[in-house]
């Protein structure tokens, strides 16, 4: 890193720390409606994928694949949604969301729907622990 | 390729051919509301990014970057949105969309909003020709 990385305050408020991969922080969106992870490359000032260095783009793609594998294996979701939008929070972050036919937003995208439904303490800690175990085993 | 690739019929109906990159067909969404390209990796049966072979994932990332660069340079958009959703059309496809502060869906995502506003013939052909020129120069 060429500059100290700090997580955007809105991402910090909406998500929970799961793990640090080589490039990205993995965070859990605190919304039990969907199994929803966010990858945040620890590159200060990064906004667009295309502006990452080439080797960071490749690493980001591999981390998207890792997180996708883990999330699908844990949730047996019907579909993965992978997206870098950033219209509201410019700091580069990639959503990896497990979707189910019949979930509240299906088949539309999840953004801008009902307010988040925060996890209950026990299910949140259990889910994060299981995610960490699988990510560190990968 | 191990099997003949055929474009999903809904993608074919909604989009226009622009160019073939090494892995992906580049298509223009026929909606003048947003500058909106779609990358379709020519891998028969592909649904999720994570299920592509590793070298295809790397190539897809580079093609996302190429198309992002071209679209941003041509449109001077404020933000890029990059997403693989596929809840309605399972065939793997990646949206690369130029967004503007104040566009009709801003700051929300573009999917599921007003019906597409097809391009007028002249502007469609001009835009596609310019895209082709930049993609082949890249």
Short description:
The structure is a homodimer of 138-residue chains. Chain A has helices at 9-14, 54-75, 121-137, and strands spanning 15-20, 24-29, 36-41, 79-84, 94-99.
Characteristic terms for this protein:
138 residues, globular, 3 helices, alpha+beta, HIT family, subunit A, homodimer
- Number of discrete helical segments of chain A: 3
Largest interface: A-B, 33 and 33 residues
Q: List the secondary-structure elements of chain A in sequence, H or E.
A: HEEEHEEH
Q: How many domain units of chain A?
A: 1
Report the CATH architecture of chain A. Answer: 2-Layer Sandwich
List the helices and strands and how they pair.
The structure is a homodimer of 138-residue chains.
Chain A: H1 9-14, E1 15-20, E2 24-29, E3 36-41, H2 54-75, E4 79-84, E5 94-99, H3 121-137
Antiparallel strand pairs in A: 1-2, 2-3, 3-5, 4-5
Describe it:
2 copies of one chain form a homodimer. With 138 residues, chain A is an alpha+beta fold. Chain A has a single domain, classed as HIT-like (HIT family, subunit A), CATH 3.30.428.10. The first copy, chain A, is 33% helix and 22% strand. Chain A has 3 helices and 5 strands, in the order H-E-E-E-H-E-E-H. The first copy, chain A, has helices at residues 9-14, 54-75, 121-137; strands at residues 15-20, 24-29, 36-41, 79-84, 94-99. In chain A, a hairpin with a 6-residue loop joins strand 2 and strand 3 (36-41). In chain A, helix 2 (54-75) packs across helix 3 (121-137). Chain A is globular. The mean pLDDT of chain A is 96. Chains A and B meet through helix 2 and strand 4 of A and helix 2 and strand 4 of B.
């Amino acid at each position: 890193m060429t500059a100290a990385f700090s997580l955007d305050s809105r991402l910090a408020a909406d998500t929970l720390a799961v793990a640090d991969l080589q490039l990205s922080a993995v965070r859990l969106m605190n919304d039990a409606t969907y199994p929803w992870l966010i990858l945040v490359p620890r590159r200060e000032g990064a906004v667009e994928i295309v502006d990452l260095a080439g080797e960071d783009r490749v690493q980001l793609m591999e981390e998207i694949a890792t997180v996708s594998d883990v999330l699908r294996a844990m949730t047996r979701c019907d579909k993965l949604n992978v997206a870098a939008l950033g219209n509201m929070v410019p700091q580069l972050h990639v959503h990896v969301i497990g979707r189910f036919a019949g979930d509240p937003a299906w088949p539309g995208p999840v953004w801008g729907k009902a307010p988040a439904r925060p996890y209950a303490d026990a299910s949140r800690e259990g889910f994060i622990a299981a995610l960490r175990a699988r990510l560190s085993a990968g």
